[in-house]
Amino acid sequence: MIKVTACNQETHVIETAQAICGDSTTAVHQVPQPEEGGSTPTSPLQLTVKPPTLRAANDFVQAHHRHNSRTARDGGKFAICCEFGDRVVGVAIVGNPLSATYMDRERYGHVAEVLRTCTNEDAPKNAVSFLYGACTRICREMGFDTLISYTLTDESGASLKGAGWQHVADTKPVSPGWRKKDHLSETRVFQEVMNKVKRRWQCRLRQHPR
Asked: Hey, what long-range contacts does 29-34 have (CB within 8 A, 24 or more apart)?
């Protein structure tokens, strides 16, 4: 059982706020933001991280996510859940970057992507930031150099800012339809959200020499 203290979160924000962007986009300076999540205020001391299966995490996403469905084949490197008391109130799923560009380890090092974060109506206000912070610590311990994630342009990204991440770029608009052909094409389900413009967020976990 992993407990996260407020002190550890503050230290993490200070460290990751100094991250270097992976492209020419100007980094967004961190400023205090209201946190996303439910209406119940709480302390990080009341939240606990536990390791669900990828299928169980995807079941939670299927039931509670506003615009995303399951990951392809319930895939990912690992999943975590956030418990508030004895109730699971949120999950996060981390996997390989969906963009093949970030699989170039010589240029970018070892990169992982937070593929899904999701909370339910019982989640306290800081649950999403808590999940991002836990994913960051786990990936740092696993040896990753960078962690990335995406949000829609109509989402504030307050939870990512609260976890010390930086907005580094926006994706380009794309035309409707599914164009990617690979070994998952027969089982991958197209989702309308895939064609929406998104903000890319980044947390640099360690320096990667180029």
From this structure: 30/161, 30/164, 30/166, 31/161, 33/156, 33/157, 33/158, 33/161, 33/162, 34/156, 34/158
Query: Which residues span the domain enclosing 131?
Result: 2-204
* Residues 71, 118 contacting (CB under 8 angstroms): no
Residue 67 included in any domain: yes
104-143 tens-digit pLDDT: 999 999 999 999 999 999 999 889 999 999 999 999 999 9
Report how far residue 33's alpha carbon sits from residue 48's, in angstroms, rounded to the nearest whole number.
Answer: 23
For residue range 6-39, list pLDDT tens digits in order.
Answer: 333 333 332 333 332 233 222 233 333 334 445 4
Q: Which of 198, 153, 154 is nearest to 174 (CA)?
A: 198
Q: Which residues contact 148 (CB under 8 A, 6 or more apart)?
A: 97, 102, 111, 112, 113, 114, 200, 201, 202, 203
